[in-house]
Amino acid sequence: MSQPEPNIEEVVKSIAEETDTPAETVSKMYADTLADYRHDARVFDYVPLFAAKKVRNKLRDDPHRKH
Description:
Blueprint: H1 8-19, H2 23-40, H3 47-61
């Protein structure tokens, strides 16, 4: 049984708040990352979770980000 798709707006909002990044920036990064993962995936159940984690980590680790 496959996992339900997460609400993209909620994921973007959550990452934006956690990382103090504009939602528009997070939305673009999430969409691009999701597309990259889906392109190479054989199993799609957890792709949205992996994409969200990658975007969140990238934004947290960005040395150019204002704190």
